Amino acid sequence: MRDVAALVKRAAAEGFTRGEIVSLLRAEGEAAALLFASADRLRAEVFGPVVHLRALIEFSNYCRNNCLYCGLRRGNRILRRYRMPPEEIVALARRAAGHGFRTVVLQAGEDPYYTPSLLAGVVREVKRLGVQVALSVGELARADYALLREAGADRYLLRHETADPSLFAGLKPDTSFKRRCRCLRWLKELGFETGAGPMVGLPGQTIASLADDILLMRDLGVAMAGIGPFVPHPSTPLATAAPGSVFLTMKVLAVTRLCLPLTNLPATTAVGAAAAGGREAALRCGANVVMPDITPLRYRQLYEIYPGKWRVDPREGSFARWQEYLKLLGRTAV
Ligand code: SAH
Ligand code: SF4
Residue 1 falls within a domain, yes or no? Predict the structure, then answer.
């Protein structure tokens, strides 16, 4: 345990080596508790009690890709698909802005129906509401990202999923780790606040590769790090794989907080789906963001990236209810 205390102190001055990250990710018992407390303290020093709420709108569950872990993969023939009309997306964003959300996140599968110019039109409309716009619509050409940036999009979330190129290749047959990183570099060059992040507990993933995930996010200088456990979905080839551990996810979160003090770290829906109280635990080990899902239920039930996702938010995406709830945890929602 003294090792963890010494490491945490040194990290602030010099940053961790890969070996040190690996040993922190292996922490158990009191050493892990100390790691979580250190990350929580640093989060409090940097952000105070503030939790940023971002309203999530899942506007299409069509996807041209076939990622092995994801319930929206094109090979999942039993999923009923939906697309929200652009006016409906804008109307939802308007309601979110009216309720107090300052950021709207527009997420979908990679759905070619929404051409970059159609999406740019939606972004322009939503920007008129005076909110920040974050996009999470996968890999596009550089010129398309540029168009969306010109339309006013502020942020872009493109998780790198895993920094192990061969694991990546096995899980995402439509792209490559190299292409994913190239997209992330483009997004940064274009001035997006860029978010990456791994899934934790993917079949075949090692602790050393999780250390590489953290080092990659440090090298990229990400503004956001979306970190959540892998949750197996029954209609995918990984249906019978073991789920990712919430404890290990918390350690990845905590070490990421220590390595990237200023980065926004969401308490992801996946960590809430994997364990009761998972999001609250994440908020106590470095996380400072929550993304309430404001997608109407009839769509949300079909946006099944992993099972149980649509049921995670008992506050049903309500800004006021989240505000109240976070107050009980000693935090202030903005
Ligand atoms: N199509 C876009 C955005 C939607 S998917 C994209 O892929 O970037 C958003 C995120 O959901 C993915 O980045 C992935 O990290 C996560 N995800 C997908 N399937 C999952 C699963 N079975 N368990 C946990 N997270 C999953
Ligand atoms: Fe499509 Fe994203 Fe799911 Fe992959 S993770 S299948 S790109 S929605």
Answer: no
Domains in the chain: how many in total? Answer: 1
101 lines ligand 1 (CB under 6 A): no
CB 313 within 8 Å of CB 292: yes
Of 226 and 316, the structure prediction assigns the larger pLDDT to 226
Structural domain of 106: 32-333
In a domain, 257, yes or no: yes
Whether this model's pTM surpasses 0.85? yes
Q: Tens of pLDDT along 239-291?
A: 999 999 999 999 999 999 999 999 999 999 999 889 999 999 999 999 999 99
Pocket test for ligand 2, best of 59, 65, 306 (most atoms within 8 A of CB): 65
Distance between CA atoms of 59 and 54, rounded to whole angstroms? 15
Instruction: Give the CATH number of the domain where residue 155 resides.
Output: 3.20.20.70
- Among the atoms of ligand 2, which is closest to the Cα of residue 172? 4
**Does 12 have pLDDT greater than 60?**
no
Q: Give the C-alpha separation, 76 to 74, whole Å.
A: 5
Tell me, yes or no, whether 20 lies in a domain: no
Distance in angstroms between the alpha carbons of the first and the last residue of the chain: 36
Give domain status of residue 154, yes or no: yes
The reply to whether ligand 1 has any atom less than 6 angstroms from the CB of 110 is: yes
